[in-house]
User: What shape does this take?
Amino acid sequence: MITRTGSAQWDGGLKAGKGQVSTKSGALNALPYGFNTRFEDSPGTNPEELVGAAHASCFSMALAMMLEQEGVSGVSIQTTSDISMDKDGDGFAVKKAHLTTKITADADEAKVLEVAEKAKAGCPISKLLNAEITMDATVV
Assistant: This one.
């Protein structure tokens, strides 16, 4: 089992409160977040963009691994993951994640797109999300 650790500190109520998010590795260290960074456009981060970054990086690594296993070389992958949060009853829920990826590879386009679909379904963060996951993949 591999365990990675992220942590958050929060002080105050929801709208006036402020928090900081960090990772054990130090890649994120006391990065600010709050109501204004989550529901408005203030500087800082929010849980959804952090999940998006995790999803995009996980998918890209999974796709690279799967293409390598297929003997494909010359691989370069650029991915974003848009995480959509919708009103759900009295609260909110993440209902969708949409991957947009541009793939360069020394292989047939149909083969690369087939492997990308497998990576979309198989990457650990995709498996974690209880959401509809869609994708626009382009081979360049």
Q: What stands out?
A: The longest helix spans residues 47-69. The domain at 47-139 is CATH 3.30.300.20 (GMP Synthetase; Chain A, domain 3).
